Amino acid sequence: MKIARGPLFLVIAAVAVGALSVIALRPRPVPVEIGTVHVGPLQTAEEDQAETRSHDRYVVAAPVAGRLLRVLLRDGDTVVKGQAVATLAPVPLSAREREEATSRVDAAAASERGAQAQLNRALEDLAHARRENERLQALVPQRLASEQALDQARTAVATLGLEVTAARHRAKSAAAELRGARAALSALGEAHSGGATLVTLHAPAAGRVLRVLEPSERVIPSGTPILTIGDLAHLEVVMEMLSSQAVRVAPGMPALLLGWGGDHPLRARVRRVEPYGFTKISALGVEEKRTNVILDFVDSPGSLGDGYRVIARIITWSSPHVLQAPLSAIFRCGSDWCVFVIDRGRARLRRIRIGHRSDEAVEILSGLEQGEKVIEHPPNELIDGSRVAVQP
Predict the structure, then answer these.
(1) How far apart are CA 121 and CA 1, in angstroms?
(2) Would you state the CATH architecture of domain 30-41+319-390?
(3) Which residues, given as ranges, of the chain have pLDDT below 50?
């Protein structure tokens, strides 16, 4: 039986047109970028701008009202302890001013006693931490204590050692202030009785002149700062951190100093998180609660000076082996975190649990396996089951 060619051709043409229509109406694959779930090192950090400062600044101020002679020192000049740095011709004192000078001596003496007490306490804490470290070193080989406890003890010894150093400098500074106050009171007595006409101000410690505040000759009131002296060989870093970030920082945490002008980051360590917060207005006019975080240099500060700008990055957590995925691949789906996983050319929505996060990666607690491919920056039109085309 023969079939007419005309009708057969029409049937074939209709089938072809239908197939082409299906192909044409079929959704095109969504172009996507992919990342790989892998195991590797991961760390979290808090980063903000900071500045360097001399660990101990000494402000040389006028002990009495009088005519300040021209200061010959300049910013950056080196001075030694006891060197004459300024000369003042005092005016006659009243009984009230003499009482004020005596009160300054009493206040300096009290500050010196307090600084010495803090030093003694820091020495006792350091001795206790060393004994605890030695005890744990003996217990760890017997598996009676954990390695983590031993690491914490070592960190405590290092941190308290820095606190002892800081306390010694505070005690030294307080003692210098006491000697200066007593010398000023003695000179005032001589000036008031006519035994002396000039008061010479001396450097309380060796270092460099950070800034001359009153270089010219003029009459100044009592207490006017004349110049500031600091030791650039003993710098620290002050980081004004948001209080919501500072709660995640603890003494002993490692840090990196970036953007200081060198070709490599400098290592530092957190010494203290100050216990008080202050209000600061941001560049956008928003009130922010901040607190000071103090860091000590581990590497040499090199050519850095007082008040230099750096970027401090404090490492708050780290691990060498973490299952992780690109941070750009995760997104919120309701109250959960989700990703799109590529399965046989299609995007499959999967809910996951995450842990620590860095600027580029996130710790995966459950929901993904090592080696799986996830979609980074998923487009808005992507849904579960969409066909995808991986971009090179």
Answers:
(1) 114
(2) Beta Barrel (2.40)
(3) 1-3, 22, 24, 194-195
